[in-house]
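Morning run. Coffee first, then this:
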Amino acid sequence: MKKNVEPEFPLLSTAPREPVGTMKRRARVLIAEDDYAFRDMLAFAFEDDGYEVVAVADGYSLLETLGASLLPASNVKPFDLVVSDIKMPRWSGLVTLEKLSGSPMAPPIVVITAFGSDEVHQRAKQAGAVTVLDKPFDMQDLVELGRRVITQKSARSERAAIGFA
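And here it is:
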């Protein structure tokens, strides 16, 4: 008799997930990571948890993709979260963060890095990163962090919409 066992790889679960986000749409996550295999793993982890994911390979593409969603008259759905590596070709994650710094329309940004010195952490936080995670990290921890950040952002937006900002 076969014993019912939990899958060895929880990210590969085929159980249906509830969509993350508002009733109107699934939450959107923009991922910027230059390592192809790691970018795919990040995208899969968020997609498996119900997110709509767009993945790019560098900071320039991140800004280009994000910029279209920030325009007031844009038909492009906004992003609810950005997950960005720091060390990437063309523009680094830090350069991208600094370019977005102070933009009220920019979504929360979680920075990931394999080069997590105190200086890098401090620079990323000063430029507006919600947090900085050092690689390697648990993929589910990142997804849970993303869920909390998006939930907090949605709650603030709803309070502002009804005048309780």
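The CA atoms of residues 33 and 57 lie 5 Å apart. Good start to the day.
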